Amino acid sequence: MSRETISQSISIVHPISLSHGKNAEVWDTTGKRYIDFVGGIGVLNLGHCHPGVVEAIREQATKLTHSAFNAAPHTPYIELMDRLTAFIPVNYTVSGMLTNSGAEAAENALKIVRGATGRTAVIAFDGAFHGRTLATLNLNGKVAPYKHKVGVLPGPVYHLPYPSADNGVSCAEAVKAMDRLFSVEIDISDVACFIIEPVQGEAGFLALDIAFAQALRRFCDEHDILLIADEIQSGFGRTGQRFAFSRLGIEPDLILLGKSIAGGVPLGAVVGRKTLMDNLPKGGLGGTYSGNPIACAAALATLDAMTDEHLQEWGSQQEEAIVGRYEAWRSQRLSPYLGRLTGVGAMRGIELTSTDGTPAPQQLTQLLSLARDAGLLLMPSGRSRHIIRLLAPLTIEPAVLEEGLDILQACLKQLV
């Protein structure tokens, strides 16, 4: 099958062609089976072809496949927003809008904060990833490959170190950098918002320092600056609870949603304080496909499955399996390249490093190939592309999870 018609600017991690999948297992066009620890890069918390999601898609497709909500509203959009806003664990009145993707949610959030504050400057963080659209590129805390050859990006955007026990940046260091930023680079009164991931995804599953999160919330309140939490990858149960910001003891003003919101169907959302969401004029928000009825039906089925009890059970089981296996590997000195375990809950990364502690991207590339040949799909991450990103479905059967970890263990031993 030729791929000449596909842009060569799209990077492919695994040179295979998938034909079908079920929960945490997929098969390629040759019939080879793989255990999927990629999960559509965080999209498939409920696995491939979750029965409830599939049935909801099938039923909705017989009723209404599309209506542009801003032209003629439809029931699935209204029902989903009622359910979704109730699902957000905050104490204020929530409203929102649906989008086609997480990046589109981020773009709309920037419009919302500009309208609400009259300011334009945004503070993001090193290692951040918020999308590939033009405005979100500038939010990303990494140049290669996203910003190469693109030219001047929308701004103004400034970046701060991201404090986490997983990268060795302390709360004090991040606060000091913030003090410098406002002393040297920009007036506080020009800043519209901070945007931050409670757990960074692209950077290798780095969990935000709790003390810094709370200090940042206080700082924003003192200076009338809005706080946006990007939960596109960390949300919908990835850390064992609805959203990762809850572990930080804060409430963001706006929350970006996507990925696992609809069981694999393209959908995103920006939700938050109603006063913020309502501040733009009529027509300021919307989109032709945003909140497509079939995507909304899939999202409603997703929320049905994501009870707090299920999320806690799934997250605990996967966390215990990964952490237990990792600790055994460390005690056994399984591989000289086995570095730190990053992240929280079921959102975990495994760092590969050389004996001197520096990143080992060549070994990760080798690991991807070895694991794929053995029937396991893995996803790289980290600034140096040296951290394995573990994104198995939360619904993975325990035996399949153990089988995948067995393969990973065998492949780690083979690294040279």
* Strand segment tally: 17
* SSE sequence, one letter per element: EEEHHHEHEHEHEEEHEEEHHHEEHEEEH
Which regions contain 5 or more consecutive residues with pLDDT less than 50?
none
- Percentage of residues in DSSP E strands: 15-25%
What would you note in describing this structure?
The chain starts with 17 loop residues before the first strand and ends with a helix. 36% of the residues lie in helices and 18% in strands. The protein has helices spanning 39-42, 51-61, 75-87, 102-117, 134-139, 171-184, 210-222, 274-277, 293-305, 308-332, 361-374, 398-414, and strands spanning 18-22, 25-28, 33-36, 94-99, 121-125, 157-160, 191-196, 199-200, 206-207, 226-230, 254-257, 268-273, 338-344, 347-352, 376-377, 379-381, 387-390. The model has no long low-confidence stretch (mean pLDDT 95). The protein has 12 helices and 17 strands. Helix 3 (75-87) runs parallel beside helix 9, helix 10 (308-332) packs parallel to helix 12 and helix 11 (361-374) packs across helix 12. A 7-stranded mixed sheet has the order 4-12-11-10-7-5-6, sandwiched between helices. It has a 4-stranded mixed sheet with strand order 1-2-3-15. It has a 4-stranded antiparallel sheet with strand order 13-14-17-16, covered by helices on one side. With 416 residues, the protein is an alpha/beta fold. The relative contact order is 0.17.
Give the structure's gist in a few sentences.
By secondary structure, this protein is α/β, with parallel strands linked by helices.
